[in-house]
Structures are given as C-alpha cells and as structure tokens.
Amino acid sequence: MGTMPDDDERILLTPGPLTTSRTVREAMLRDWGSRDPAFAAMTARVRRRLVALAGGEDTHDAVLLQGSGTFGVEAMLGTFVPVDGKVLILVNGAYGRRMAQICRAIGRAHTVLEWDEDQPVDPAATSAALAADAGITHVAVVYSETTSGIVNPLPEVAGVVAAAGRRLLVDAMSAFGALPCEAQTLGYEALVASANKCLEGVPGLTFVVARRTALAAAAGRARPGWRRWTGRWTSTRPKAAWPVAPPATGATARSWWKACGRSASGRCCPPTSRGRSSSPSTRRPTRASTSRRSTIAWRSAAT
Amino acid sequence: MGTMPDDDERILLTPGPLTTSRTVREAMLRDWGSRDPAFAAMTARVRRRLVALAGGEDTHDAVLLQGSGTFGVEAMLGTFVPVDGKVLILVNGAYGRRMAQICRAIGRAHTVLEWDEDQPVDPAATSAALAADAGITHVAVVYSETTSGIVNPLPEVAGVVAAAGRRLLVDAMSAFGALPCEAQTLGYEALVASANKCLEGVPGLTFVVARRTALAAAAGRARPGWRRWTGRWTSTRPKAAWPVAPPATGATARSWWKACGRSASGRCCPPTSRGRSSSPSTRRPTRASTSRRSTIAWRSAAT
After folding, report:
1. pTM reported for the whole predicted model
2. How many CB atoms lie within 10 A of CB B294?
3. Strand partners of residue A286
4. What are the residue ranges spanned by the domains of chain B?
5. Which residue in A12, A14, A69, B118 has its CB near the most CB atoms, within 10 A?
6. Does domain B16-270+286-299 have CATH number 3.40.640.10?
7. Predicted complex ipTM
8. Residues 6+ apart with CB under 8 A from A83
9. Which residues between 197 and 236 in chain A have a beta carbon less than 8 angstroms from any beta carbon of chain B?
10. C-alpha span between A137 and A127 (Å, rounded)
C-alpha cells in the first residue's frame, strides 16, 4: 500500500476500541461485494480461524454478526437460552449486570448471583446455586470484566457448571485473544467476543463461537436482528456466509481477518498458560486485563 | 492522504453495499476513541446532517446504530410501536415481508396488506384498511423495494395515514439520499435507512430519523441491543453521543460523515422533485431505484 503519513496516528488508551495497526486499517481500502464468492470465501476463512483460535475445530462453529459487543451478547442469550430455559447470571460488574438487563428485555427467566466489583465470582457459590435450583439450564458469566479488569475464574466456573450438567455461556469480550478460551477445556455452549478488543480489529463486528449441536438445537430461535443462525450459517454453501441481509462490512471483515491472521500459534492463549493446566488451587483472582495488557499477552502468543 | 494504488478498485453493481469513493474509505485510516470529545462532536455533526437531509430540523432527531439495515428496521419497529400497538404493514416485496417477520419475532401485533412484487402498494386500499380497523396505530411501508426496484407512492400513503390519524414508519433503505424524504411533507414518525446505500458510506451503520416527541414517548421501550434511545440520545451532553456501550466504529462513522457531507444542497432529494409537489394524480409507480440510479440522482442533487 506504500507509505502513508502518520499525522493521524494516535494511541487509544481505552479498554476498547483499541489502536489498530495501519495494516489492519489499510485492509478497509477495498470495497467488497457481499455476494461475491471471494467475500464468502474470506468470511469462511475468518470463521475457521476463530474456531481454531478457540481450539474448537471438532465441536464448535463461529457465527459472525454486524454490531456491537452488547448486541452479540443479546444474540447469544436470546438464541441459546430457550424461552422455557433459565439462566443463572454471575455478576461482579457492569457487563454482568447488562446480561441480566438483556434477559429482562428479551424475556428469559434468570436469577442473579452478585459479588462486589473488586471480587471475582465464586465457583463454590455457583455450584451451590445450581444445586438449589433444578430449573436453571444455563450459566452466564463475563470472563474479564472490562470495566474493572477483574478476570473471573472461568475454568473453575466451567468445572462446576459441567459437574451440575448445565450449559455455559461466556462473555469473553475483553478476553478472547489474550486469555485461554479453549473450547475443549472449558466446554462452553457458546462464547461471544468482538473484533475490536484483543484481536485488534476495527469495531463493528461481533462473533459467537458455539457448539455445533447447540446451533442445530437453536434453529428458529434466532431473530431477524440477531440473524438467522444455524442451518445456513453452518452450511458450506458460499452464499451461506452471511445469511438474511446482504450485510457485511466487507472491508471491515477483511480488516478483521488481517488482525486475527497474526496469530502464528493458532490459539488464543498465551504460551505461559497453554502448557499448564489451570489448577484451581494455584489460580488466583487477577486484576489484569486492561486491553492493552491483554494485547501484550496476545502479541506474545502470536510471535 | 496522498495517492494510493488503484489495483484494488472495483465497481460493485449490487443494490448495496455499493462502491465507495476512495476519500470515504481513506477516512477509515484513523482510530477514534469512542469517548473522545472529538468523536462525540463528529457524531453530533453526523446526526445534525442526517436530520437536515430529511428537512426535519424543527421536529426530528437522528439516532445512529451499529449494525445492518435489518437490525435498524427491527429497532425502529420495536421502539416506536408500543406492546399494545398494532402495525399495518404494506407488503410488495421481500423487505415488506421482513417487517412482518420482525413483528412476529418481537411480539408486535400486525396485519398485512399485500400486492404482487411488480405492483406498488395502493394508498386507497391502505385507507380502507385503516378505516376498517380502529386498533391499527401505525403503518409501516418500504419506500423503495430494493429487491424489485419498485418505488412505492410514499407521499400518497403518508397522506392517507395522516388523514386517518395513524403514525407512519418508513423503511427508506435504498431511497434515503436519492428520493424525497422530507419529514415535514411526509410527516413520518420514524424513517430508517443505512449508510451503505444512496449515501455511499461503508456498511456497518444504520440510522433512524424520528420525531422528537416519538423518541420521548418511546423512553424505556428500546432494548439493549437496539440501544437505549431517547433521553441520552436526545441530550446534548458530549458523552451522550453513543449511549450504553462504547460502541461506534469511529473510523466508519468518520467515513460516513465524509459520504453524507458531500451534499451541497443539504437535502436528500433531487432538485427536480424538490420544487414540485408530488401530486398524486401525476405520480405514477416507478421502477427506478437500483442503487446506482439512485446514486446518480443523489449526485445530481449534491452538485
């Protein structure tokens, strides 16, 4: 693309959107037709790459959505929790509370376990809450509370959810790309994140990595605004890449692909945490992830 | 920005997304902080410009949303039609049918009047339907059916809706920026369109131009995914520019601003139709608007 002047370069010290590389932004300089086979193929590559980053090749698929992270969370909750389901929401910050707000708005039964904003959620209390209410079908938790930087003990929460035979939904907004999000280890039903946090893409896209069986079971549940997941999404037909509307920020998607294509390791967890099992006894609550710090982890994972 | 190589230039002959200018795309080369006062100010300018394009300065406001056009339509229907309201949907193509599908999904009572895909909707039949059902509170119509190119007689439909004392909701997706969308003449409660049709912006943003009184009345009705309209949106506080999540595709919004800033005339209708009233007797159903033709109209309006 040649050398561009840097007079508009600035560093964003926000938890997201974050600073993107010039390479990522320059990928938006081309228009893409949303029904173009080349665009469909690119979309398929992005989806495969996201599933690979989550280590879910054998079990999971990735669904792309235009919109904000909050929109992705709403789509995930509304699509995977059936109308006769009930969600236990673990809350220790603004994004946990927002999940409760969303469930109220879209009419999904839910109950909330809440902790102070400077405390991680507690797996033991979660386990007790599940034991006490057989009606709970799903557990929803924020992995990294963007507002406070608290990282919740996801592996331990995943363990108690699995032990209780319930399904796990994860808001990994400021975690995916920096913290371990292994589908096999964590066994989540679905995990939502967005392009403009630790993947360092431009804003405007959100995505859900979901168990294929859950996608199939949710057929018909996704609303127009959330897109018609399942079926066409999981199809291999080229036109199936973006269902319903011809939507897709082609340029944005391309830019996103550039961003997530930087992962040489192919998995979205830092090498330091990949080899080691995250033993509950040695894991402590961490106040870690401003996105810049996550980014550092991501970069070290990618080299 | 200097000269860029043109090897990736291509013309999209689709009804949208359409080809964008290099100037518009290059506006995406800068990162914006979503809480930056400069970004809030730009957002405010975009909103004002959209209201001006619709000629609604005295009565209407503009709300920006990340997402596809379908998402914007869902947000409009769900926000402005109360749960005890009822929508008459005029259908003569895929996007009319989609509004009915959305109403079913979000639980809004509705009734459908349908015509063949090569026929415009009929104001007289609309009037009769309104007379026959006092429970109908709103009428929803697609201005230009993108799939067929049929332009519906919006001024005449607006006339019968106003005469019957009901409220008008317009999907102007492939019309806004090319066909007259005057808020004062048409008196719509709300009109939805997107950045990537006749405004020639990049995809990813949709917007609703809505009567201020309707925004106030809808307080509390907007859902998290649709954003919390009203209140904060209509506030002049800088932070109010993008409520709820720090969302905004800064780069995309900037690009959009570049696109809609090209209108020298300040209104989104071609000069040929602005000076003349659109008399029902002389207006005929037109099969006009592929987006490229709309674009030509828009360009001639802008010079």
Report:
1. 0.81
2. 28
3. A151
4. 16-270+286-299
5. A69
6. yes
7. 0.78
8. A107, A108
9. 202-204, 223-226
10. 13
